[in-house]
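User: Could you walk me through two proteins back to back? I'd like the raw sequence and the structure tokens for each, with a short line separating them so I can tell where one ends and the next begins.

Assistant: Of course. Protein one, sequence then structure:
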Amino acid sequence: MSKLPKEHKFIDLSDYGRPIAKVIANSLRNTSFTPIHVTISFIISGLIAIYCIIQGHYWLAAFFLIFKSILDAADGELARIKKTPSYTGRYLDSVADIILNALFFIAIWYITSSSIWICLAAFIGLQLQGTLYNYYYVILRNKFDGDTTSRVFENETPIALEGEKQKHVDILFRLYKLFYGVFDKTIYTLDRTADKGEIFPNWLMTAISTFGLGFQLLIIATMLVAGLKVFIIPFFLIYTIMIFIFIGIRKFFF
């Protein structure tokens, strides 16, 4: 099932890996592989990328960063193909993402000798960027009943869906709240009425999709192979300013 009706689909710059992700998911349709297996695969790809960054193998690091992004899309595609949506998969995906993001930045900090405090600030900025994108995207999807597991407000532990255990949902939801709670609250505080406003125009969502994790990883990969590793952390710190610009546009016009 598509996440959005045709007239409200936008060019998602962070979703460049979707075509390959669909091929991967379709190839696993009649196998015993589950979306969780694909999620574990993207975790492994991310860890390999981190090792390559530390060892100075930047082209390989770029490959595994982008491959991680593709697999990150493939787990959701496989869940839709097999009609097995789950909160376990949804929260495992998110928890794995934030841990890997932290490790990516630690690895870049290590090879560039940047200030650890600037690195931390850039990581926080990266997460706030991604949170704003997800916040607006989930609002848009929920307006059209385009998603069964993503919620605008993650306030209460959801009831496990068929085929998953409530215990797993409970544990992963607690981890999700631990890692993402402060970011969710911050973005909600900055734009409390986003879910009550007009439907976001496609052009605005395309612009905000530069905050999507796939695009963020593409930027990191590109800067690594271009010999711009020392600028990665400063870039994400400065680009965080765009959060306030996008929210301002949303509030003023929509």
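----
Protein two, same layout:
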Amino acid sequence: MVGEELSITARTNSGDLSEIWRHQLSVPGVPQIIDAHYPDHPDGRGVHQPRLQPRSEAEIAFVGIGPGAGRWFKEAGPAGAVRLRAKMARAVELAAVMGSDSVDQALGLAATAGRFADDDLLSILEHLAANRPAGEFVRADETHSVQSGTIGWQALGQ
């Protein structure tokens, strides 16, 4: 610290210490995130994606299908998907039969659309096999719902 500022120093190639950054101190609960500290991200710090860390042979085989499988692997857990091992094993089997490219594309589409249910991968593969375009992705939420609402319940009990 230098007065009211934080001074960050580093050892240079010549062995000397040199100040590389200085900025105002923050107070607890009000962090300062300076985009210039994250030059490799397009929007400064950006959104950090979880690192892909397959640990078992089955996970390595699944991720080996392609980048779509990697995206599915990263997003399925945080989305609350269940029976991931069984779904991953099924995808590896499908890739062996149908080819990695089509299964990888389907897994990427499933991850983008947030579709992680038991038969979603097969449904997407069938859709792609019929040579139909994928269309626009819409995640089900409060603004995009097929729920008709509760107006029909008003007459209940009258």
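The chain has a mean pLDDT of 80.

Let me know if you want the two compared in more detail.
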